[in-house]
From TrEMBL:
<dbReference type="GO" id="GO:0060090">
    <property type="term" value="F:molecular adaptor activity"/>
</dbReference>
<dbReference type="Pfam" id="PF24492">
    <property type="entry name" value="HEAT_ECM29"/>
</dbReference>
<dbReference type="InterPro" id="IPR011989">
    <property type="entry name" value="ARM-like"/>
</dbReference>
<dbReference type="GO" id="GO:0036503">
    <property type="term" value="P:ERAD pathway"/>
</dbReference>
<feature type="domain" description="Proteasome adapter and scaffold protein ECM29 HEAT-repeat">
    <location>
        <begin position="590"/>
        <end position="744"/>
    </location>
</feature>
<dbReference type="InterPro" id="IPR016024">
    <property type="entry name" value="ARM-type_fold"/>
</dbReference>
<dbReference type="InterPro" id="IPR055443">
    <property type="entry name" value="HEAT_ECM29"/>
</dbReference>
<dbReference type="GO" id="GO:0005737">
    <property type="term" value="C:cytoplasm"/>
</dbReference>
<keyword id="KW-0677">Repeat</keyword>
<protein>
    <submittedName>
        <fullName>TOG domain-containing protein</fullName>
    </submittedName>
</protein>
<dbReference type="Pfam" id="PF12755">
    <property type="entry name" value="Vac14_Fab1_bd"/>
</dbReference>
<dbReference type="GO" id="GO:0005634">
    <property type="term" value="C:nucleus"/>
</dbReference>
Length: 1112
């Protein structure tokens, strides 16, 4: 609208349109209090008015100035009315406006009026000189005294540098503009310098970058006086047009002097000042001056481009990031000003400075603060610290993110060509700076650098790698992080042979960076390592042949020593993964390095276990520890490390195994970890399964045998399993050594030793035939331990017994066949154990073995051997009674049952008495348990030999004991003893016949009718069917029948149904013998017996009555 009004003039607009516009502007001016809007409306209003209307409007404004009610638009209207072209205002009127505006400023009355007054004064000073002729201009200048000028300068300077909150940034900026427009070409040096003093003072307050840019423009305006392009009419004049009309040679000389003076002050004083705020402000002023002077290209600037460049380069060393950005932008500005030769020199200087670094020249006092709050450089470790050595100092966000190099590259690509080797490596890294703003700017620079060289990364890959390798351990975290990220991308796309040669060194450095104090650096290092691992695995593939082998030789020692051997868990895990990936890809190229890989992976089985497992192991019982170790072994054998070891097995040849075998032996012998030793065993098993020819020439049996002495049962099991696979490839001598070990341990009475050999034999029985030739030596021992007795609550003992049973089932087809084949060996082992063992439980086991062999009937046809066994058993009866000695008696009983008849045929009466004597001696022992078993055995002896004399002896003793015990029927222990020995009566009866048998039966009847405890009677009743069935005499069982019938009726009434049923069985056996005419049963005198039996419930359900009627 302003351009439209200026172009057409107020007279060219139609009356109605002009009137409508004027009314609209007046209405909005009077109703709006917003300062910026009022300013623009006032400018438009002043443009549309005619000359007379402007004079009239100014008079009205003066009246309002003098009244108490001043509107916000009045100062703006005065300023714009006084500065419009083609308006003949006098110097006096303009001075009046200025005085009124200064008065408002001095009184600081109201924020709105104050800001409007400052803005209006700046506009009045900016354009007022162009509306006056030379005479009026002289009058205007001379109307202000030096004191008034100084006072005004001080007032404006106070406002600009004030730290009061009531003064807004806009007020300060307007005050600075006023100071700049106060200067004229005709101003004295003193007055000009006063303006500079006030402007320079603005730089000493806390950093206000926006204000300092206004101060820089004000310095330029002050130096250029009326010739400053800032004073142009922005609607109708360009800067070039304005300078052409207002910049004469005389004025140019004055400006040259002023600018030269400003440069000297800024570069030699202000930029070297100890006050960091002033240095930052000076950088902004210098940058603004250079940017404003681009159009004029003053000689004082063109001749000092080098010095100005140095000033900006020094500005890059500032710790404040904004200062660095301004300095970098300033470098771009002066580069545009230079000639081709100057540009070449400046580029060389800049590259050298940024590449090698430059020391800061600013003085630092003891009380100098280097960093402000929230500025970079907050920690000694480099936190947020950027220096000019990093190109990230060149990033700027003033107007655009482009940096100095962007400008340089666009204008002087040929000049930069010689320096690409220096700059490209650094620029490549800076593209990955943690600061996203810097990162984006650096990518822009990189595009400018590589716009004409698409393969620049490939061309400088080695140089980039050298740069990154040197900065991976830089003290500053930003550099370390960016180096890692840059390295990750470089390796992914541009890995040259020269880079590959330094992979070992690179692995070592990255392992260190993996442990960086800063998390983001550790993450970046992880990315770099990931890229390095991928390229390493790819280059170690078997398709690369000799190169892969060479690379493995460089990296594997570092990976194992610095990675797997590291105390940092992430490095250990990463290194193990590297090795496992390499093994899967390398194939036969791995052969030269198997000797270091295998021990490493085996050790890792233990090292990578959770520490919680060790915690549990330290607090577990022996049984719990075995379960835990078994679980650990199972997990280790299914682990990735063990799977990797299986990949290695096919690659092992004779030359490799010659060295590897020694290392495996060392692992078996001295490794601390359970899983490492068991893993080594499993690895040897895999070798036995896949590389049998290797195992035939290497001896490990002795080491594995020694390992069986370990305290850990899991290790013993695994070593046993390994031996079972290894023995088929071992020599006969080695096999014999194992067999000798087995035989030696089988004779050991310690449970741990027996369990060791049990695990070994179980493994051997499953995997080899080595035991088939030595069954006669081991089977007796296996059967011996198979016969052990286990307590009900002994779970471990039950498991062990089950394993012995399983081993027995695996080695022999069935027990009866084994006894026929190995009876002599079994008896020999049992007898030796019986006579030599000091452990009663083992003696009892041996006795049980002999009892089992005897019961099997394998000695029926070998009377001499049976007699030898009997003599050995009775010989063993001598001495004290020990726990389980009754097993010996049981063995003798079993032998008598199976071979007693044959022995009796061989023995005469004298021999029988001699053979019986040791047994008879045992019958008088005080131990009731043992004594009872001896009496039963003696009864069995009497039955088998049918020798009446000794039977009478035993019977008499038994009757006496029974009779004596009846008197103490309330003694529980007595009942148990009687229950034990009463069954012997049934066996003793078989030794009598005729009248003597009748007398003995009467004794039995008397016992059954006595008041003795009913369970004693039950014990006898249970055994009577045996006597009735075996009895060879035609005896009279009538009294026995009546006594048992009475017991049946009594127990049926007492609800002892089991006892009554057993009595019924006895009666049925008697009736059966009577039916067969094998005994006498006369019941005709006892007719009531039938009626009594009929009432018994048990009898009703049996065939007793029917058979009895038939018998009658």
């Amino acid at each position: 609208m302003a351009c439209l009004f200026l172009h057409n003039g107020s007279g060219n607009l139609s009356h109605n349109y002009r009137a409508t516009t004027v009314a609209w502007l007046q209405r909005h001016l009077n109703s709006n209090s917003h300062i910026a809007i009022c300013a623009k409306l006032s400018e438009l209003y002043s443009l549309i008015l005619t000359g007379m209307e402007k004079k009239k409007c100014l008079e009205q404004c003066f009246k309002q100035f003098d009244s108490d009610k001043l509107s916000v638009q009045i100062p703006w209207l005065c300023a714009y009315l006084a500065t419009q072209p083609s308006v003949n205002f006098t110097a006096e009127e303009i001075n009046g406006i200025k005085v009124r505006l200064v008065n408002i400023i001095e009184t600081l009355s109201g924020q709105q009026y104050f800001e409007a007054a400052c803005g209006s004064l700046a506009e009045l000073l900016r354009r007022s000189v162009f509306g006056l002729n030379e005479t009026e201009k002289t009058i205007l200048v001379s109307s202000v005294s030096d004191n008034q000028f100084s006072s005004l300068c001080e007032l404006l300077g106070k406002i600009a540098a004030s730290r009061k909150d009531i003064l807004t940034s806009k007020m300060k900026e307007l005050a600075v503009k006023c100071l700049g427009f106060l200067s004229l070409h005709s101003s004295s040096t003193v007055l000009y310098e006063k303006i500079l003093v006030q402007l320079f003072a603005c730089g000493e307050i806390a950093a206000q970058p926006e204000l300092q840019f206004i101060v820089g423009n004000a310095l330029f305006d002050a130096a250029f006086g009326e010739s400053s392009p800032s004073r142009r009419n922005i609607f109708v004049e360009t800067e070039e047009y304005f300078l052409e009309r207002n910049l004469s040679i005389t004025k140019l000389d004055s400006i040259e002097k002023r600018i030269a003076n400003l440069l000297e002050i800024l570069m030699n004083i202000k930029l070297r000042h100890a006050n960091r705020h002033l240095r930052q402000a000076a950088l902004i002023w210098l940058f603004t001056l250079m940017k404003r002077c681009v159009v004029t290209k003053l000689n004082c600037i063109m001749d000092n481009l080098g010095s100005i460049q140095h000033a900006f380069i020094n500005g890059l060393t500032e710790t404040n990031e904004f200062s660095q950005e301004v300095a970098s932008e300033g470098l771009g500005v002066i580069f545009e000003l230079g000639s081709e030769e100057q540009k070449k020199v400046m580029v060389e200087e800049l590259v050298n400075t940024l590449s090698t670094g430059r020391k800061r020249l600013d003085p630092i006092a003891p009380n100098t603060r280097l960093f402000a709050k929230d500025e970079l450089g907050t920690t000694p470790t480099g936190e947020n610290l950027t220096t000019y050595q990093e190109l990230c100092n060149l990033a700027t966000d003033l107007n655009q993110p482009d940096l100095i190099y962007n400008t340089i590259m666009q204008q002087a690509e040929s000049l930069m060509e010689p320096y690409l080797a220096q700059l490209v490596p650094k620029l490549y890294r800076y593209r990955y700076d943690p600061d996203l703003k810097v990162q984006g700017a650096m990518r822009s620079i990189w595009q400018a650098v590589t716009v004409s060289k698409k393969s620049v990364t490939e061309e400088y890959a080695n140089a980039i790698f050298d740069e990154l390798l040197s900065t991976l351990t830089d003290p500053q975290w930003r550099i370390r992080e960016s180096s890692c990220l840059a390295l990750a991308d470089l390796l992914s796309g541009y890995c040259t042979d020269k880079i590959t040669e330094r992979f070992g060194q690179l692995f070592e450095i990255l392992y260190r960076v993996q442990d960086d104090v800063k998390e983001s650096v550790r993450i970046a290092a992880g990315r770099a390592l990931s890229s390095l691992i991928k390229i390493t695995v790819r280059k170690c593939s078997s398709v690369n042949g000799a190169k892969a082998t060479q690379l493995l030789g460089m990296v594997l020692p570092i990976i194992i020593e610095k990675g797997v051997g590291s105390s940092i868990k992430i490095n250990k895990m990463l290194s193990l993964n590297i090795i496992m990936d390499i093994v899967k890809e390398a194939g036969l190229t791995l052969q030269e390095h198997i000797n270091i890989i295998v021990p490493c992976l085996l050790d890792s089985l233990s090292e990578e276990e959770s520490t919680f497992l060790n915690y549990l192991a330290a607090r577990s019982s022996l049984d719990e520890l075995e379960v835990l170790d078994s679980a650990r072994m199972s997990v280790a054998h299914s682990s990735p490390m063990m799977s990797t070891l299986r990949y290695i097995v096919p690659c092992i040849n004779d030359s490799v195994f010659n060295t590897l075998g020694d290392k495996l032996i060392e692992q078996l012998r001295s490794s601390v970890g359970v899983t490492t030793r068991t893993g080594a065993c499993q690895f040897i098993i895999d070798l036995c399964l896949q590389r049998q020819q290797l195992m035939m020439s290497y001896k490990m049996v002795r080491v594995l045998l020694n390992g069986l002495n370990d305290r850990n049962p899991v290790i013993k099991k695994q070593f046993s399993s390994c031996l079972s696979y290894l023995l088929p490839f071992s020599s006969k001598r080695e096999a014999n050594r194992v067999l000798d070990y087995i035989k030696q341990k089988l004779r050991n009475e310690q449970d741990k030793e027996k369990m060791t050999v049990l695990h070994l034999m179980r493994a051997l029985s499953r995997n080899t035939e080595i035991l088939s030739d030595s069954l006669s030596a081991v089977v007796p021992f296996i059967f011996l331990y198979k016969c052990q007795e286990v307590a009900k609550n002994d779970e471990a003992g039950k498991r062990n017994l089950e394993m012995w049973d399983e081993l027995w089932s695996e080695l022999v087809p069935d027990t009866s066949s084994a006894m026929r084949l190995y009876r002599k060996e079994m008896i020999e082992v049992a007898l030796v154990t019986l006579n030599t063992s000091s452990i009663f439980a083992i003696k009892a086991q041996a006795a049980k073995v002999l009892a089992t062999v005897a019961e099997s009937g394998v000695l029926n046809d070998d009377v001499d051997y049976a007699e030898l066994l009997y003599d050995n058993l009775t010989s063993a009866l001598h001495g004290r009674i020990w726990d389980g000695k009754e097993k010996l008696i049981e063995a003798i009983s079993a032998l008598l049952r199976s071979a007693g008849k044959n022995l009796a045929l061989k023995w005469n009466e004298a021999t029988i008495e001699t053979k019986f004597l040791p047994l008879w001696e045992q019958c008088s022992k005080k131990s009731e348990k043992y004594n009872g078993e001896a009496i039963l055995c003696a009864a069995m002896f009497c039955e088998m030999t049918a020798y009446n004399k000794i039977a009478q002896q035993v019977m008499s003793s038994n009757s006496d004991e029974t009779t004596s015990e009846v008197s103490s029927v309330n003694h529980p222990k007595t009942y148990d003893y009687l229950i034990k020995i009463v069954p012997a009566i049934a066996h003793l009866l078989l030794s009598f016949d005729g009248a003597e048998l009748f007398d003995r039966i009467e004794q039995v009847v008397a016992l059954l009718k006595s008041n003795i405890f009913w369970k004693v009677k039950q014990a006898l009743i249970i055994e009577l069917p045996y006597f009735i069935q075996k009895c060879a005499s035609h005896a009279d069982f009538t009294t026995l029948f009546l006594a048992v019938s009475s017991l049946l009726t009594e127990n049926d009434i007492s609800q002892r149904r089991t006892f009554a049923q057993q009595c019924c069985f006895v009666l049925e056996y008697i009736v059966k013998r009577a039916q067969n005419k094998e005994c006498i049963l006369s019941l005709h005198k006892h007719t009531n017996i039938m009626e009594t039996l009929k009432k018994a419930t048990i009898v009703k359900s049996s065939a007793l009555l029917d058979n009895l009627l038939k018998c009658e």
